[in-house]
From TrEMBL:
GO cellular component assignments: external side of plasma membrane; extracellular region; membrane raft
Localization of this protein: Cell membrane; Secreted
Protein name stated in the entry: Lymphocyte activation gene 3 protein
Assigned keywords, A-Z: Adaptive immunity, Cell membrane, Disulfide bond, Glycoprotein, Immunity, Immunoglobulin domain, Membrane, Repeat, Secreted, Signal, Transmembrane, Transmembrane helix
Location of the Ig-like domain: 50-131
Length: 157
C-alpha cells in the first residue's frame, strides 16, 4: 500500500497509533489489526474499514445531454434494500431526490443544472445507512435559453 499509507509519527508518543490511507481504494476494505508493544505489554486493536464508491458511466467528463449512469456501491455485507440520491442536499418537491431499488441513477439528458454535489445513500436490510458524496461536473453551455442575443452597433458583444 506504499506510498498511500503513513503513521503520524508526531503523535506516537501520546499513544495515537492511527494509520492514514490516502487515497482509499475499494480494495483497501477489510479488517486491520494494530499491535503495539510497550515495555513487556502487547496491545492489539482491530478496525474494519468499509469503502463506498461512486462511479460514472461514461467516466468524467460528463457531457450535457448525453446519457449518464451513476452507481453507488459499498463493501458492507448486508443486503442492499434501497439507494437514494440527493442533489445539492435539498429535500422537497423540486429537490431532485431519487430513491429506487438497489441500483444506479440514470439521467437521460443531464443538464448544467444537474452539476454539483450528489449524495448517494445506501440503506441495508439491518437498517444500516451509509452515504457518500460526489461532485458532478458537466461540460456544456450555461448561457441564455434564447440563442438570439442583440447588441448595439459599435458596442462589444
Amino acid at each position: 500500500m506504499k506510498p498511500r499509507v503513513s503513521l503520524q509519527d508526531s503523535t506516537l508518543r501520546n499513544g495515537n497509533f492511527s494509520l492514514r490511507i490516502d487515497p482509499v481504494r475499494s480494495e483497501d476494505a477489510g479488517l486491520y489489526e494494530a499491535r503495539v508493544k510497550y515495555n513487556s505489554e502487547v496491545h492489539t486493536c482491530h478496525v474494519e474499514l468499509g469503502v463506498i464508491t461512486v462511479t460514472l458511466s461514461p467516466p468524467n467528463p460528463v457531457v450535457e445531454n448525453e446519457l449518464l449512469l451513476m452507481s453507488c456501491n459499498s463493501s458492507y455485507r448486508a443486503s442492499l434494500v434501497e439507494t437514494c440520491w440527493f442533489h445539492n442536499g435539498h429535500l422537497g418537491p423540486t429537490s431532485r431526490t431519487f430513491c429506487s431499488l438497489p441500483g444506479a441513477l440514470s439521467m437521460l439528458r443531464p443538464a448544467m443544472s444537474d452539476a454539483g454535489s450528489w449524495r448517494c445513500q445506501l440503506r441495508y436490510s439491518d437498517n444500516e445507512i451509509i452515504s457518500a458524496t460526489y461532485n458532478l461536473q458537466i461540460l456544456g453551455f450555461d448561457g441564455p435559453t434564447n440563442p438570439v442575443v442583440y447588441a448595439a452597433a459599435g458596442s462589444a458583444a
